[in-house]
UniProtKB/TrEMBL annotation:
UniProt key word Metal-binding: yes
InterPro entries given in the database record: MBL_Glyoxalase_II (IPR051453), Metallo-B-lactamas (IPR001279), RibonucZ/Hydroxyglut_hydro (IPR036866)
Source organism (scientific name): Halorientalis pallida
One Pfam family in the UniProt entry: Lactamase_B
Cofactor: Zn(2+)
Official protein name in the record: MBL fold metallo-hydrolase
Length: 222
Protein backbone atom coordinates (compact mmCIF):
# COMPACT_ATOMS: atom_id res chain seq x y z
CA UNK A 1 0.00 0.00 0.00
CA UNK A 2 1.30 3.42 -0.97
CA UNK A 3 0.41 6.37 1.29
CA UNK A 4 0.81 10.03 0.31
CA UNK A 5 0.34 13.14 2.45
CA UNK A 6 -1.61 15.27 -0.02
CA UNK A 7 -1.49 18.36 2.21
CA UNK A 8 2.29 18.26 2.67
CA UNK A 9 2.78 21.45 0.63
CA UNK A 10 0.14 23.49 2.48
CA UNK A 11 1.08 27.05 3.37
CA UNK A 12 -1.77 27.48 5.85
CA UNK A 13 -2.77 25.43 8.90
CA UNK A 14 -4.19 22.01 8.08
CA UNK A 15 -4.03 18.45 9.25
CA UNK A 16 -2.11 15.82 7.34
CA UNK A 17 -4.53 14.28 4.84
CA UNK A 18 -3.39 10.84 3.71
CA UNK A 19 -4.21 9.18 0.42
CA UNK A 20 -3.98 5.39 0.69
CA UNK A 21 -3.63 3.76 -2.73
CA UNK A 22 -4.09 0.16 -3.73
CA UNK A 23 -7.12 -1.90 -4.57
CA UNK A 24 -9.30 0.70 -2.82
CA UNK A 25 -8.17 4.36 -2.98
CA UNK A 26 -9.22 6.10 0.23
CA UNK A 27 -8.47 9.49 1.77
CA UNK A 28 -7.99 9.66 5.54
CA UNK A 29 -9.21 13.16 6.50
CA UNK A 30 -9.73 15.91 3.94
CA UNK A 31 -7.66 18.68 5.52
CA UNK A 32 -7.99 22.43 5.06
CA UNK A 33 -5.65 23.07 2.14
CA UNK A 34 -6.92 24.85 -0.95
CA UNK A 35 -5.99 22.72 -3.95
CA UNK A 36 -6.23 19.38 -2.16
CA UNK A 37 -8.28 17.98 -5.06
CA UNK A 38 -5.41 18.72 -7.47
CA UNK A 39 -2.97 17.08 -5.06
CA UNK A 40 -5.15 13.95 -4.98
CA UNK A 41 -5.42 13.93 -8.77
CA UNK A 42 -1.62 13.92 -9.01
CA UNK A 43 -1.85 10.34 -7.74
CA UNK A 44 -5.24 8.97 -8.76
CA UNK A 45 -8.32 9.77 -10.83
CA UNK A 46 -10.60 7.77 -8.55
CA UNK A 47 -11.39 8.02 -4.85
CA UNK A 48 -13.69 5.48 -3.28
CA UNK A 49 -14.14 7.03 0.16
CA UNK A 50 -13.06 9.60 2.70
CA UNK A 51 -12.60 8.27 6.23
CA UNK A 52 -12.56 10.85 9.03
CA UNK A 53 -10.55 10.44 12.21
CA UNK A 54 -12.62 13.31 13.66
CA UNK A 55 -14.35 16.49 12.58
CA UNK A 56 -12.21 19.38 13.83
CA UNK A 57 -12.02 22.14 11.23
CA UNK A 58 -8.45 21.45 10.12
CA UNK A 59 -9.54 17.91 9.21
CA UNK A 60 -12.78 18.68 7.36
CA UNK A 61 -12.60 22.19 5.86
CA UNK A 62 -12.13 20.78 2.34
CA UNK A 63 -14.41 17.78 2.84
CA UNK A 64 -17.32 18.98 0.70
CA UNK A 65 -14.98 19.91 -2.14
CA UNK A 66 -13.40 16.44 -2.12
CA UNK A 67 -16.73 14.59 -1.86
CA UNK A 68 -18.23 16.63 -4.69
CA UNK A 69 -15.24 16.16 -6.98
CA UNK A 70 -14.91 12.40 -6.58
CA UNK A 71 -18.47 11.39 -5.62
CA UNK A 72 -16.89 9.47 -2.74
CA UNK A 73 -18.55 7.86 0.28
CA UNK A 74 -18.01 9.42 3.70
CA UNK A 75 -17.12 7.22 6.68
CA UNK A 76 -17.39 8.99 10.04
CA UNK A 77 -18.00 8.15 13.67
CA UNK A 78 -19.86 11.35 14.50
CA UNK A 79 -22.99 12.64 12.73
CA UNK A 80 -22.47 14.50 9.47
CA UNK A 81 -24.96 15.56 6.80
CA UNK A 82 -23.00 13.71 4.14
CA UNK A 83 -22.09 10.60 6.09
CA UNK A 84 -22.87 7.43 4.14
CA UNK A 85 -21.31 4.93 6.54
CA UNK A 86 -21.42 5.29 10.32
CA UNK A 87 -18.24 4.02 11.92
CA UNK A 88 -18.42 2.14 15.20
CA UNK A 89 -15.71 0.83 17.49
CA UNK A 90 -14.67 -2.61 16.28
CA UNK A 91 -15.63 -2.06 12.63
CA UNK A 92 -13.19 -2.93 9.88
CA UNK A 93 -12.54 -0.79 6.81
CA UNK A 94 -10.36 -1.32 3.74
CA UNK A 95 -7.79 1.37 2.99
CA UNK A 96 -5.63 0.79 -0.05
CA UNK A 97 -4.78 -2.90 0.20
CA UNK A 98 -5.12 -3.41 3.96
CA UNK A 99 -7.92 -4.07 6.42
CA UNK A 100 -7.98 -1.62 9.33
CA UNK A 101 -9.74 -1.97 12.67
CA UNK A 102 -11.65 1.08 13.90
CA UNK A 103 -10.70 1.99 17.48
CA UNK A 104 -12.75 4.65 19.26
CA UNK A 105 -10.20 7.04 20.82
CA UNK A 106 -11.90 10.14 22.30
CA UNK A 107 -10.32 12.72 24.58
CA UNK A 108 -9.03 15.16 21.99
CA UNK A 109 -12.43 14.98 20.23
CA UNK A 110 -15.62 13.15 21.18
CA UNK A 111 -15.89 11.56 17.73
CA UNK A 112 -12.24 10.55 17.35
CA UNK A 113 -11.27 7.18 15.91
CA UNK A 114 -7.92 5.64 15.04
CA UNK A 115 -7.35 3.04 12.33
CA UNK A 116 -4.94 0.17 12.85
CA UNK A 117 -3.88 -2.76 10.65
CA UNK A 118 -1.24 -5.44 11.03
CA UNK A 119 1.40 -2.98 9.81
CA UNK A 120 0.03 0.56 9.93
CA UNK A 121 -1.60 3.10 12.24
CA UNK A 122 -3.57 6.20 11.25
CA UNK A 123 -3.71 7.89 14.64
CA UNK A 124 -5.39 11.20 13.86
CA UNK A 125 -4.61 13.58 16.71
CA UNK A 126 -4.73 11.18 19.66
CA UNK A 127 -0.99 10.42 19.34
CA UNK A 128 1.59 11.98 17.02
CA UNK A 129 5.28 11.38 16.54
CA UNK A 130 6.35 15.02 16.83
CA UNK A 131 4.37 18.25 16.93
CA UNK A 132 6.51 21.03 18.40
CA UNK A 133 5.61 20.14 21.98
CA UNK A 134 7.47 16.81 22.09
CA UNK A 135 9.59 14.75 19.75
CA UNK A 136 9.17 10.98 19.57
CA UNK A 137 5.80 10.54 21.22
CA UNK A 138 3.35 13.39 21.70
CA UNK A 139 -0.40 13.43 22.30
CA UNK A 140 -3.40 15.51 21.30
CA UNK A 141 -4.16 18.67 23.25
CA UNK A 142 -6.92 18.43 25.84
CA UNK A 143 -7.17 21.97 27.21
CA UNK A 144 -10.12 23.15 25.13
CA UNK A 145 -13.86 22.82 25.73
CA UNK A 146 -15.15 19.27 25.37
CA UNK A 147 -11.69 17.71 25.69
CA UNK A 148 -10.41 15.45 28.48
CA UNK A 149 -6.88 14.40 29.38
CA UNK A 150 -8.20 11.47 31.43
CA UNK A 151 -10.24 10.17 28.49
CA UNK A 152 -7.30 10.64 26.16
CA UNK A 153 -5.09 8.58 28.46
CA UNK A 154 -7.69 5.82 28.46
CA UNK A 155 -7.86 6.00 24.66
CA UNK A 156 -4.10 5.59 24.26
CA UNK A 157 -4.22 2.58 26.56
CA UNK A 158 -7.09 1.11 24.53
CA UNK A 159 -5.19 1.68 21.31
CA UNK A 160 -2.10 -0.07 22.68
CA UNK A 161 -4.27 -3.01 23.75
CA UNK A 162 -5.79 -3.25 20.28
CA UNK A 163 -2.57 -2.95 18.29
CA UNK A 164 -1.11 -6.23 17.01
CA UNK A 165 2.23 -7.19 18.46
CA UNK A 166 5.05 -8.58 16.37
CA UNK A 167 6.07 -12.20 16.33
CA UNK A 168 2.94 -13.92 15.06
CA UNK A 169 1.88 -15.12 11.65
CA UNK A 170 -0.50 -12.97 9.70
CA UNK A 171 -4.13 -14.10 9.43
CA UNK A 172 -3.80 -14.19 5.64
CA UNK A 173 -0.85 -16.59 5.82
CA UNK A 174 -2.61 -18.84 8.28
CA UNK A 175 -5.80 -18.92 6.21
CA UNK A 176 -3.97 -19.77 2.99
CA UNK A 177 -1.84 -22.48 4.55
CA UNK A 178 1.30 -20.64 3.52
CA UNK A 179 4.50 -21.02 5.48
CA UNK A 180 4.18 -19.15 8.78
CA UNK A 181 6.14 -15.92 8.89
CA UNK A 182 6.93 -13.59 11.74
CA UNK A 183 5.21 -10.20 11.77
CA UNK A 184 7.21 -7.18 12.85
CA UNK A 185 4.07 -5.50 14.18
CA UNK A 186 2.97 -1.96 13.39
CA UNK A 187 5.86 -0.10 11.75
CA UNK A 188 4.14 2.78 9.91
CA UNK A 189 2.44 5.66 11.73
CA UNK A 190 0.52 8.40 9.96
CA UNK A 191 -0.63 11.05 12.42
CA UNK A 192 -2.81 14.10 11.89
CA UNK A 193 0.13 16.45 12.51
CA UNK A 194 3.90 16.21 12.48
CA UNK A 195 6.03 13.77 10.55
CA UNK A 196 5.36 10.25 9.40
CA UNK A 197 7.10 7.67 11.59
CA UNK A 198 8.68 4.40 10.46
CA UNK A 199 9.80 1.98 13.14
CA UNK A 200 8.51 0.65 16.45
CA UNK A 201 5.16 2.46 16.61
CA UNK A 202 4.22 0.80 19.88
CA UNK A 203 7.19 2.45 21.57
CA UNK A 204 6.10 5.88 20.30
CA UNK A 205 2.63 5.31 21.78
CA UNK A 206 4.04 4.11 25.08
CA UNK A 207 6.22 7.24 25.26
CA UNK A 208 3.21 9.46 24.54
CA UNK A 209 1.21 7.66 27.22
CA UNK A 210 3.93 8.19 29.82
CA UNK A 211 3.96 11.92 29.05
CA UNK A 212 0.18 12.23 29.09
CA UNK A 213 -0.04 10.40 32.41
CA UNK A 214 2.04 13.10 34.08
CA UNK A 215 -1.05 15.35 33.76
CA UNK A 216 1.17 18.35 33.07
CA UNK A 217 0.16 21.04 30.54
CA UNK A 218 1.21 20.13 27.04
CA UNK A 219 1.95 23.75 26.16
CA UNK A 220 3.28 26.43 28.56
CA UNK A 221 0.25 28.67 28.04
CA UNK A 222 -2.34 26.01 28.93
Amino acid sequence: MDVYNVTADAETFTCNAYLALGERPVLVDAGAMDGVVDAIRDHTRDLDAVVLTHQHGDHVAQLDVVLDEFDADLYAYGPHDRRTVELEDGDQVMLGDEAFDVVYTPGHADDHVSLVSETTLFSGDVVVHDDGAFDYGSFGRTDMAGQSRERLIESIRDLLDRMPEGGRASDASAASGAERSESAGVEHMYAGHGDTFEGAVRDVLETALERAEKREPKYPDE
